[in-house]
Write a structure and sequence with these properties.
444 residues; globular; 6-stranded mixed beta sheet; alpha/beta
């Protein structure tokens, strides 16, 4: 998830990680190495946490760990890791493989528990079951590996569609319920605005860079057309089917039409930058972008609506990819009990409410979706509750520790489909054969 960062929040000047990390950083991208920093010199009894990637995450995390520090007397240093999920995972894997104690608490993606589980503490030893039970059951199940609760849900989300209420009103259009309707409306408003003297107006921006974000976008397109989830829950490879072909053919038609060629290099923040500057009609993104789009200095403040992502035609269904992040404790932490207490503090009701109200991060605690303050701050949380509670999961559980290779094969194929005017069907057939080899004869 590299790209533009929220420039309203800058990390404090920080010295580099301790020297033993030098051995694990060379194989990461240079940008990832430069991003790695800590907020204070290492000292006895100091915990470290990796958090903050998009929007206001870093500052929200800093405020919360400062509050925990005042409450407990412990010091906490923030480790700033790469925005890109792929680069962040690579960093984690190398640190954990080296049994490094340099990060006590790790912010992990919803698809990583199975991959990282051998290196993570069982939090059920430290966090009462009554507290665990407050969270979405599906997320707790996702974070439980071989009976161990290896992470606590911090915030969840699903892909949603942002739109310019003022522009749809101007052109007499209603929010699209199908991808086909979105295509038509985006093309019409884009042309009208350009003729009216807004040459930079785009119809639709989304995440089409070759990374995990494209897996999320493409899964939404394909699932909404009834094309499945690439790999079924029982491990069957399902990507090579006519519904998936139709979904990807439509998506490919957007490039250099309602979406700029540059979208092929967009991540979440690149997309938000275009939309929030007033240069796009529609945007696919995560809920975090709501608070930023409506910030006091936002050019589109008060002009934005949010709905569920469109269906793949009248026979399709709304589909948003399950996202979100968890907090886990490294087995190599020098103080796992204190680290688990920090996790419990950061994932509790009051803290999740603060993050929801101030920055539109979706809570993982069910009761917060009925909290009046939360619904006043982010009205669409209530309207799109079903989208969040029943989002489509990426096939990480079915593929286990091969998920990252599966996802890379998928998003690279989709990127090629979007980039080149080649027939889709042969490319999906090639992808199927590649996944068959990865599955070792159908056994993940």
């Amino acid at each position: 998830m590299t790209g533009h960062r929220d420039r309203s929040v800058q990390p404090r000047p920080e010295p580099p990680l301790r020297a033993r990390l030098r051995g694990v950083l060379p194989c990461l991208a240079a940008a990832a190495a430069l991003a790695l920093a800590v907020s204070a010199p290492a000292q006895a009894g100091t915990l470290s946490i990796s958090c903050g990637a998009l929007g206001r995450e870093l500052q929200l995390c800093q405020d919360a760990v400062d509050a925990w520090s005042r409450r407990t007397g412990h010091s906490v240093r923030i480790v700033s890791t790469p925005n890109s999920a792929s680069e962040r995972l690579a960093l984690y894997q190398q640190l954990l493989a080296a049994h490094s104690p340099d990060i006590d608490v790790l912010q992990i993606d919803v698809v990583w528990p199975g991959t990282l589980a051998p290196h993570l503490v069982d939090l059920s030893r430290y966090i009462p079951q009554a507290v665990v039970d407050q969270h979405f059951e599906a997320l707790i199940a996702n974070n439980t590996v071989d009976g161990a609760l290896v992470a606590m849900p911090w915030f969840t989300d699903a892909g949603v569609l942002y739109y310019r209420k003022d522009l749809l009103e101007k052109y007499g259009e209603t929010p699209p319920q199908t991808w086909q309707a979105l295509t038509r409306i985006a093309r019409r408003i884009q042309a009208g605005e350009r003729e009216a003297g807004h040459p930079r107006m785009q119809g639709f921006v989304f995440q089409a860079k070759g990374y995990e974000g494209l897996t999320c976008n493409a899964l939404e397109w394909i699932d909404s057309f009834g094309g499945g989830t690439v790999i079924a829950a029982d491990g069957r490879i399902t990507i090579d089917n006519p519904h998936a072909v139709a979904a990807l053919e439509l998506a490919a038609s957007w490039i250099d039409d309602i979406a700029p060629l540059g979208v092929l290099n967009y991540d979440e923040e690149e997309s938000r930058g275009v939309f929030q500057s007033g240069n796009a009609v529609f945007m696919r993104n995560w809920p975090y972008a709501w608070a930023l789009a409506n910030a006091e200095d936002s050019p589109i403040r008060g002009k934005v609506g949010v709905i569920a992502l469109p269906r793949g035609g009248d026979a399709g269904h709304h589909s948003g990819t399950l996202g979100g992040w968890q907090l886990a404790v490294s087995r190599y932490s020098s103080d796992p009990a204190a680290a688990a207490d920090l996790v419990a503090f950061l994932t509790r009701y009051d803290e999740q409410k603060r993050r929801a109200v101030s920055a539109a991060y979706n809570p993982t605690i069910v009761a917060l979706y009925k909290d009046a303050d939360v619904l006043e701050a982010v009205p669409f949380f209530g309207q799109l509750y079903d989208s969040f509670a029943h989002a489509v999961a990426r096939p990480s559980r079915a593929t286990g520790n091969r998920y990252n290779r599966v996802s890379a094969a998928f998003y690279n194929t989709v990127h090629d489909i979007l980039s080149k005017p080649d027939p889709v069907t042969p490319q999906l057939q090639t992808l199927r054969r590649r996944l068959e080899r990865l599955s070792r004869g159908g056994h993940w």
